[in-house]
Specification:
three-stranded antiparallel β-sheet
């Protein structure tokens, strides 16, 4: 069983995570980030969480 597809998915996730972080920086937002961490026990979206000015943006990245 090959893990190639899984590794491609992680690469895709890493690239998009970098894109969203750079976008926050380039737009001069004061943001903090949580990557691959559940914020709560029932958190379904854990790939990327962006905290900005009291607002939470969640990203779930899938490769197919």
């Amino acid at each position: 069983m090959s893990l190639r597809s899984a590794h491609e998915g992680y690469e895709y996730q890493d690239l998009l995570t970098a894109y969203f972080i750079l976008s926050e920086i380039l737009n001069n937002h004061e943001s903090s980030f949580t990557i691959d961490t559940k914020v709560s026990a029932n958190d379904a979206f854990d790939d990327l969480t962006i905290f900005r000015n009291g607002i939470i943006f969640k990203k779930q990245i899938k490769y197919s």
